[in-house]
Amino acid sequence: MATILITGSSDGIGRHTAEVLAADGHRVTLHARNDRRAEDAREAVPGAHGVIVGDLASLSQTRELAAQAVEAGPFDVVIHNAGVGGGQSAPQLTEDGLERIFQINTLAPYVLTALMPAPSRLIYLTSGLEADGRARLDDPQWQSRQWDGMQAYSDSKLYDVMLAFAVARLRPGTLSNAVDPGWIRTRLGGPGATDDLPEGAGTQVWLATSDEPAATVTGRYFKRRTALRANPQAYDEGLQDRLLALCADLTGVKLPE
User: Fold this and answer.
1) DSSP character for 256?
2) Total Cβ atoms within 10 A of residue 8
3) Residue 194: pLDDT band by 50, 70, 90 thresholds?
4) pLDDT average, residue stretch 225-244
């Protein structure tokens, strides 16, 4: 049995991943943005061990969420599943004055990774759109560029792969990988998506629990249990280090090695 935390697990891919892992006998802790969604998560996954609550669009709540996770843990596996899409017609700033997509999709998993004890396995959900991402670390808040919501989303998903690879490099005791779940029919993916929830969750479940040689690797980018080449920028260690430094500067939290 593994102890597993899944962020963004009140619906969609995260919830289905939690359902599968709990049904397989693992001790699963859910995460929800607020109390109402936490209750939804409890009802949807009655086999879960518990739920921690915090809005990833708030740095203070993300820090508090990390404290809750430390108390609920330790965890063998953390799956950074939570994320938002890029359909906004204009940039939205959070209470911290940060661009919302970047904060939720990139800064939040960085902060949780930095403030929680290192698990045996870390899984960061990305998207196939990471291939279109551009590492514009000079302007992550879109202050000097014309806003493009889908580009902001693609960039954030590239940063997730970079984060997974950086952690793999800096923490050799942790298996850290990124997963493209595919275009899944969820609230985020929309009704026109091509794939069902089991396909979107299968690779995370496998990486979280399997002892197969193909699953016990680190610093890889997966889709459908197959290791693929990610955006070339993701392998640039200099860019990885710049991303970590940027995240540390914006959050006041440094990633311990």
Assistant:
1) P
2) 27
3) low
4) 98
Active site residues: 153, 157
More confidently predicted of 196 and 216:
216
**Distance, CA of 200 to CA of 230 (rounded, Å):** 18
The residue behind tokens 């108390």 is: 71
Instruction: Give the CA dihedral 141, 235, 183, 25, nearest 10 degrees.
Output: -110
> Of 3-12, 40-49, 148-157, 181-190, which gets the smallest average pLDDT?
181-190
Return the amino acid letter for 64.
Answer: E
Spell out a b/e string for 62-94, using b for 16 or more CB atoms within 10 Å of the CB, else e. Answer: bbebbebbeebbebbbbbbbbbbbbebeebeeb
Of the candidates 124, 133, 152, the residue with the CA atom closest to the CA atom of residue 233? 133
Query: In whole angstroms, what is the distance from residue 195 CA to residue 21 CA?
Result: 20
Question: What would the pLDDT profile of 88-99 be if each residue is shown by its tens digit?
Answer: 889 999 999 999
Nearest to 110 by CA among 154, 63, 179, 53: 63
Cβ–Cβ < 8 Å for 5, 73: yes
